[in-house]
UniProtKB/TrEMBL annotation:
Stated family: Belongs to the ABC transporter superfamily.
Alphabetized UniProt keyword annotations: ATP-binding, Nucleotide-binding, Translocase, Transport
Domain ABC transporter: 5-246
InterPro entries registered for this protein in UniProt: AAA+_ATPase (IPR003593), ABC_transporter-like_ATP-bd (IPR003439), ABC_transporter-like_CS (IPR017871), P-loop_NTPase (IPR027417)
Alphabetized PROSITE patterns for the sequence: ABC_TRANSPORTER_1, ABC_TRANSPORTER_2
SMART domains: AAA (SM00382)
NCBIfam families: PRK13548.1
Cited function: Part of the ABC transporter complex HmuTUV involved in hemin import. Responsible for energy coupling to the transport system.
Pfam families, per the entry: ABC_tran (PF00005)
This protein's name: Heme ABC transporter ATP-binding protein
GO terms for MF: ATP binding; ATP hydrolysis activity
Amino acid sequence: MTILLEADDVGVAYGRHKPVDGVSLALARGELMVVVGPNGAGKTTLMKLLTGEVAPTGGAVRLDGEALGAIPAWRLASQRAVMAQASRLAFPFTVAEVVRIGIDSVGRALTRGARERIIGEALAAADIGHLAARSYQTLSGGEQQRVQFARTFAQLRAGRTSTDRQVLFLDEPVANLDLSHQIALMESAARLAREGVAVIAVLHDLNLAATFADRILVMSGGRLHALGAPAEVITRARVRDVFGVDLCREAESGLPVVLPQHYAGMRPERGAA
Ligand SMILES: Nc1ncnc2c1ncn2[C@@H]1O[C@H](COP(=O)(O)OP(=O)(O)OP(=O)(O)O)[C@@H](O)[C@H]1O
């Protein structure tokens, strides 16, 4: 198993407040890990620690075996892509231009045709081909979110010309999406995982998490509460403890969350990484 992202006892303190405290994890090539937890549990802060946006006050993060801080920005751009919670743009870029930004720093060696192919593929992966000429600023929140996913998708595709050991970070990527686009975006993320990308995503929807995750990490009060396969982690007792929600009786066996019929059989098969 090839580990692409590692956190050792990582945490950050703001005065006496510790949004994330002592979290350790290892994310393998081809794995899709979903981070869940209540509001304020430390999910976004953990993602920021893992991407290097926030410097840890304790512990260490390694990307493909190297200390995060030691990797130059130009190389990081090929190794990982980040979709943050909200992305506003000050300039009136078109959708296609925003997606092109994703490959500006990593796709210089690509031919013009290859770049256009990647952009087309990214637009399709996010179902925004029909919006390509629209101004990003005039899009709905959900449409903007899909554009940001396409940008990260394009960045990874272009970066693959330098390395196929890549990590994708998605912080609440489906927050504003309708049900079918939530599933479509997670399917695209799962497809990237099947191609070997290590994917880590913050989600609030436990159904979606259980459907798509190889492993689920539960954060609670800044600490790692549980980490494992969906059926082991999303138990009725844990949902009660962590989220304060009592699930229905049917939830007693196997995955406790009532999976809508629509999700049935949608769990993608993972190929060997
Ligand atoms: N820069 C900061 N200074 C002080 N406190 C912070 C800072 N950043 C985050 N926090 C606090 O850390 C805690 C965790 O925040 P974080 O955004 O990681 O939670 P979350 O699990 O992503 O929540 P949500 O589900 O609401 O998005 C919160 O109480 C937040 O107010």
